[in-house]
Specification:
Shape: globular
Strand content: under 5%
Number of strands: 0
Distance between the termini: 32 Å
Structural class: mainly alpha
Order of helices and strands: HHHHHHHHHHHHHHH
CATH superfamily: Hydantoin permease
Mean pLDDT: 83
CATH architecture: Orthogonal Bundle
Oligomer: single chain
């Protein structure tokens, strides 16, 4: 498989985590503005494509082989060490957020134990981590197409059936995030931290500047298509779902209850790919050579207690803080020689 396809798959798998595929982030950052939210999705799609490809080109040109090398080279040893510590913590907590979401899906949608959901994701992640970058690339190449098919089918089916009859057209003009323009920038910023970390580990896949540009642009375009698909689906039923934790599951209920179960599996896949991105970034940073299996096992097991805090609580506390840090970092990386 061409490397730019692998890079694009990893890019999509990194971003399309629980908040994206569940529809909660799309409602918060775009759906609240009604039809203006579509313009916000377009702006975010451009940022994902342009900034993503520029970052990959920077990593190729500078021959960056890891996040620690990236921050030390660009930010200096003292400040770089501080950022490195913040990043390690964010990756650890990000992994915990996703396995917590797995537990919630197993309990609420599949009727199984919360703990079983956590254990299943931890075991699957551990197996993939043992194969390093090859494992991350392979699993994303398989699962990301399933995500794309599921989300796009839901959107096309509902919009054709309902005739694009949106219940929220006007929407809000100003929110706590500003307007749809500032909201789209903040949304990109909330994903910047994990993008920097994962991209800084992709140098072995970037064989040329063309590979970097194609991987970034195609990944951004796919994220735009998925975002617009989720947004248009939810705008139809906005008044019924805008305050739900996982609005896309209720949207899928309007197709049929069995399809809601199927989408719950799709949502789990989205959480899994993002958990892999966080875990891979963490392992790439702290695990060097000998003892990799032991460190990987400890990482997976010790993330479980934090996951018990709860999915919604973790998202509400952690995401905004790391979003601001990530956006500032990615802008600095791009402008610095």
């Amino acid at each position: 498989m061409k490397n730019w396809i692998k890079i694009a798959s990893i890019y999509v798998g990194t971003v399309i985590g629980a908040g994206f595929a569940s529809g909660r982030e799309i409602i918060e950052f775009f759906g609240i503005y009604g039809l203006k939210g579509i313009w916000g999705i377009i702006i975010s799609g451009l940022l994902f494509s342009i900034v993503g490809s520029l970052l990959l080109v920077k990593i190729y040109d500078k021959k960056i082989k890891g996040f620690d090398e990236l921050v030390i080279n660009l930010f200096g040893e003292r400040f770089g060490t501080l950022l490195d510590t913040i990043m390690i913590f964010s990756l650890y907590t990000g992994f915990s957020v996703m396995i917590s979401g797995s537990g919630a899906i197993f309990k609420d949608e599949l009727g199984l134990s919360y703990n079983i959901g956590i254990i299943v994701m931890v075991v699957c992640a551990f197996i993939v981590f043992l194969f390093s970058l090859e494992g991350l690339s392979f699993i994303n190449s398989i699962l990301v197409p399933l995500l794309i098919i599921g989300i796009i089918f839901t959107s096309i089916y509902l919009n054709i059936r309902e005739g694009y009859n949106f219940s929220n057209i006007q929407g809000a003009s100003i929110t706590s995030k500003g307007n749809f323009i500032t909201s789209s920038i903040l949304y990109f910023g909330s994903n910047s931290l994990i993008i920097i970390i994962v991209f800084s580990s992709l140098y072995p896949l970037i064989h040329s500047r063309e590979t970097a540009i194609k991987g970034g642009i195609i990944g951004g375009i796919i994220l735009f298509i998925l975002g617009i698909s989720i947004l248009t689906s939810m705008l139809i039923y906005y008044n019924e779902i805008f305050n739900l934790n996982i609005p896309m599951l209720m949207v899928c209920n309007y197709i049929c209850k069995s399809y809601r179960k199927l989408y719950a599996i799709i949502l789990w896949i989205a959480m899994f790919t993002t958990a892999l991105a966080n875990g891979f970034g963490f392992m790439n940073r702290v695990s060097k050579g000998k003892g990799k299996i032991l460190i990987t096992a400890l990482f997976c097991v010790t993330a479980i207690p934090l996951a018990k805090v709860g999915f919604a609580n973790l998202v509400g506390i952690i995401y905004p803080v790391f979003g601001v840090i990530g956006f500032g970092m990615i802008m600095f990386i791009l402008v610095k020689d």
